[in-house]
Amino acid sequence: MSGLRVYSTSVTGSREIKSQQSEVTRILDGKRIQYQLVDISQDNALRDEMRALAGNPKATPPQIVNGDQYCGVWAGLGGGGSVGGGLW
Asked: CATH number for the 4-72 domain, one of 3.90.1170.10, 3.40.718.10, 3.30.1300.10, 3.40.30.10?
């Protein structure tokens, strides 16, 4: 697969995950960076793919991948965190 992908979920009870997903997509949209939103709630195989790319069997969304290169987990910008891979 090529291009930037953001693994997310449309089904979650976690406010933190919802907030992080919204912030990632807001920033990417604001910078006019094209990406594919991959909803892992649609298929367990997508969740497994996300976790394999992240190298973490317990990884949760949002996760960011560029092509087949794992870029990082969203850590937020407010606390000085960032996304790996130099996206920002």
From this structure: 3.40.30.10
Bond preceding residue 57 cis, omega within 30 of 0: no
pTM for this model (two decimals): 0.81
Ramachandran sector of residue 72 (left: φ over 0; alpha: ψ -120 to 50; beta: rest): left
Return left, alpha or beta for 77; rule: phi > 0 is left, psi -120 to 50 is alpha, else beta: alpha
Instruction: Tell me the pLDDT tens digit for each residue of 72-83.
Output: 876 655 444 444
